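Batch manifest line 126
LIGAND: iron/sulfur cluster
JOB: complex structure
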Amino acid sequence: MQDLVHKEGYPYAFDASACAACGGRCCTGESGNIFVTYQEIRALALFLGLSDDDFKERYLEKRGYKYSLKEKLVDESYDCIFYDRTHNGCSVYKARPLQCRAFPFWDHYKTRVDELKQECPGIIDA
Ligand code: SF4
Ligand code: SF4
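JOB STATUS: finished
ARTIFACT:
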């Protein structure tokens, strides 16, 4: 059954039922950035029972003046450090950053629906 999500201003809808069979394409594949704010760092560190400094050391890297989640190279895929291939999902789901929560409704994709469709099989023309 389709579980369609619409968002005002976006020329597409998202079928969340596609995630089950997708294999986390938005969390793996090409190298990218998942930026985190200080509040999100705090929330993730708390979720994992770490101090902010330990969390930064283990899981973040500086990209310019921002922090992004580290990646791990698996076969030829740059997986997010928190992507769990065994369970096919995010290991910090409840504390995942806003950038992840907002996907696939990113401003970048408003005018790049074809590019988004290549990445996410849940995209449907609105
Ligand atoms: S790429 Fe799309 S369908 Fe696949 S897990 Fe991410 S949001 Fe779900
Ligand atoms: S934090 Fe979770 S949802 Fe976000 S990219 Fe990493 S594995 Fe995916």
